[in-house]
Design goal:
Keywords: Membrane, Transmembrane, Transmembrane helix. With 63 residues, this protein is mostly helical. Helix content is 75%, strand content 0%.
Length: 63
């Protein structure tokens, strides 16, 4: 069996490479700040959910 890719697969791989090349390759300080802010909000959300779960468990609402 030959080890060649089908034409549509070759075309798809080429298009993916072209799309990746078109993306900006730099990660700026603004991007890092945005990621840090997102991490903080996700942490707050998780902490709030944990506090609510513990409070409801202690109140006997959750069994």
């Amino acid at each position: 069996m030959p080890d060649t890719a089908s034409p549509w697969l070759t075309t798809a791989a080429r298009r993916i490479r072209e799309a990746r090349a078109a993306l900006p390759q730099t990660f700026t300080a603004s991007d890092a700040r945005r990621n840090d802010e997102l991490d903080v909000w996700i942490g707050r959300l998780c902490a709030g959910a944990l506090i609510a779960f513990v409070a409801l468990s202690l109140a006997g609402v959750l069994r």
